[in-house]
């Protein structure tokens, strides 16, 4: 597959427009941001001020969604050890692999933080994933599924923060996560306090009961006097380098082995089925643009992804090694390759949060 010689963006990605020199359009137009100026500096000032002012605000100073991946592990460490905050770790038990659970247990014990686990109904999750994979919107499986289950656990984190009177949720999203239309450093206060996060198409399709739809966060159902937390992504403000984060969580003993800090190993098993579907429909890995952006910005290793990206795609296509999760997820959901269909228009599942941006 033809790829950009600079950032490895596949030519099959819409808008890549690789020229005769081998460089893609995003690389040709790229201008590296000065970390001392601009938006990121303002975010960092706000973040540092926030971390200072929340200390001692209650039983817990902040809530951290803990998935067991490298970024949430390192964020938990920094907030607890470097900033001295009283942290409540929150895990949504949504199809996490054994490696992630191992890291979660190790980090929580090592750092001595309180930890709560939210376990939505397995029946509901299976029904949700099956419906979404059989009725994907035009951007494919990763977009469709991720931007439904992300609001699912984000909303539950907000509910937990409200119940515990925690003033801020701090999420371990790396730069570029989630897509900028959803968040750049912070969910706006209007999105947290006023918008129903239930995907409209799920409500309209008739396949889900009111109790099942109630898993999605809806602040409109809360009392008028509710105190809503802020929801921030510190790695959007701090300096970030993927390789350095992997090295740090390994050195700090927050993972049992270095491989557990690898995003390929710690990711959701169903993610392999989602990547399989998108490779089938589009011919490129849906995460390629995200990692290419990190490479372009000097925050991820080009040499590493030049080697690993083809290996990951081969595992998925041939369903071997970690790619066996494709088969396991199909069996869990009762699906075949033919069931993985794109039949919904762009934005079909986008709740109001998807179209909103922080002020």
List the helices and strands and how they pair.
Blueprint: H1 25-28, H2 39-53, E1 62-65, H3 70-82, E2 87-92, H4 98-111, E3 114-118, H5 122-134, E4 136-137, H6 141-163, E5 168-170, H7 189-193, H8 200-205, H9 210-213, E6 230-232, H10 242-251, H11 263-266, H12 269-282, H13 288-296, H14 302-318, H15 324-333, E7 342-344, H16 352-355
Parallel strand pairs: 1-2, 2-3, 4-7, 5-6
Helix pairs in contact: 3-4, 3-10, 12-15
Give a verbal description of the structure:
By secondary structure, the protein is mainly α. It has a domain at 39-262: Rossmann fold (3-Layer(aba) Sandwich), CATH 3.40.50.620. Helices cover 46% and strands 7% of the residues. It is built from 16 helices and 7 strands. The protein has helices at residues 25-28, 39-53, 70-82, 98-111, 122-134, 141-163, 189-193, 200-205, 210-213, 242-251, 263-266, 269-282, 288-296, 302-318, 324-333, 352-355, and strands at 62-65, 87-92, 114-118, 136-137, 168-170, 230-232, 342-344. The protein has a 3-stranded parallel beta sheet with strand order 1-2-3, sandwiched between helices. Strand 2, helix 4 and strand 3 form a beta-alpha-beta unit. Helix 3 packs across helix 10 (242-251). The two termini are 40 Å apart. The model has no long low-confidence stretch (mean pLDDT 93).
């Amino acid at each position: 597959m033809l790829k950009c010689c600079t950032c490895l963006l596949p030519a099959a990605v819409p808008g890549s427009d690789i020229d005769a020199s081998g460089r893609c359009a995003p690389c040709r137009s790229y201008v590296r941001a000065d970390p001392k100026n601009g938006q990121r500096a303002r975010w960092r000032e706000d973040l540092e001020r926030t971390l200072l002012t929340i200390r001692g605000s209650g039983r817990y100073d902040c809530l951290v969604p803990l998935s067991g991946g490298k970024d949430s592990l390192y964020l938990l460490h920094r907030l607890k050890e470097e900033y001295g905050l009283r942290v409540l770790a929150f895990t949504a038990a949504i199809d996490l692999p054994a490696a992630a659970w191992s890291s979660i247990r190790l980090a929580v014990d090592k750092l001595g933080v309180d930890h709560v686990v939210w376990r939505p109904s397995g029946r509901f999750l299976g029904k949700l994933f099956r419906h979404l994979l059989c009725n994907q919107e035009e951007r494919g499986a990763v977009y469709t599924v991720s931007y439904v289950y992300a609001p699912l656990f984000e909303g539950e984190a907000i509910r937990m923060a409200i119940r515990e009177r925690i003033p801020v949720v701090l999420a371990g999203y790396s730069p570029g996560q989630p897509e900028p239309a959803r968040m750049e450093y912070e969910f706006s206060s209007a999105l947290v306090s006023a918008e129903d996060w239930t995907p409209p198409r799920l409500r309209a399709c008739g396949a889900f009961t009111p109790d099942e739809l109630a898993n999605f966060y809806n602040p409109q159902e809360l009392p008028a006097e509710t105190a809503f937390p802020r929801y921030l992504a510190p790695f959007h403000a701090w300096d970030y380098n993927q390789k350095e984060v992997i090295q740090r969580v390994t050195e700090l003993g927050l993972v049992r082995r270095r491989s557990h800090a690898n995003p390929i190993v710690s990711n959701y098993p169903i993610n392999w089925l989602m990547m399989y579907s998108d490779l089938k429909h589009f011919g490129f890995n849906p995460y390629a643009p995200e990692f290419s952006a990190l490479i372009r910005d000097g925050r991820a290793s080009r040499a590493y992804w030049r080697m690993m990206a083809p290996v990951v795609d081969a595992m998925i296509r041939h369903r071997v090694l970690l790619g066996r999760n494709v088969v396991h997820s199909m069996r869990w959901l009762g699906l075949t390759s033919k069931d993985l269909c794109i039949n919904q228009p762009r934005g079909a599942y986008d709740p109001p949060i998807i179209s909103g941006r922080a002020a």
